[in-house]
Amino acid sequence: MCEGCGEEWRTRKAQARTCSPQCRVIAEGRKSRQVPMPPQSQHARLVDDAERIALELITMVRDEDPRRVWRRLEGLKPQTMFAVVIALAALVPDDRTPAQLLEWATWAAA
Q: Would you state the pLDDT for residue 109?
């Protein structure tokens, strides 16, 4: 597995810890974390995973302990995390104010 982007390798790379120079920079922490776009062949699977996880998080954030939500997010690969963020943004109605969107939260009124 690449230490930069978290992708599984199809073939074993001898002595390599990362799949590209960009991922090597990320893994070494010399630069801000950049997440490369996945190859076109992985888009359908990534979209399906992001939709499923986004819907799961919507339920979790409303019904469960925030620490459990955090742990769920920590387990995501960087590319999946980006896809989930995009899916969640797409699910938010754009004709409501933040206050309207957060009416369900007991802390929103405070």
A: 47
| Same domain (yes/no): 54, 31 | no
Please answer whether residues 46 and 80 qualify as being in contact, where contact means their C-beta atoms are separated by less than 8 angstroms: yes
Residues 30 and 51 reside in one and the same domain: no
Query: What is the number of structural domains in the chain?
Result: 2
Q: Distance between CA 14 and CA 54 in Å, rounded? A: 36
**Alpha carbons 104 and 107: distance in angstroms, whole number:** 9
- For residue 70, how many C-alpha atoms fall within 13 Å in the half-sphere facing its CB? 3
Please state, as a whole number, how many other Cβ atoms lie within 10 Å of the Cβ of residue 2.
20
Which residues, in sequence order, are CB contacts of 68 under 8 Å at separation 6+? 60
Question: pTM for this structure?
Answer: 0.64
Distance between CA atoms of residues 94 and 13, nearest Å: 46
Q: What is the pLDDT of residue 51?
A: 96
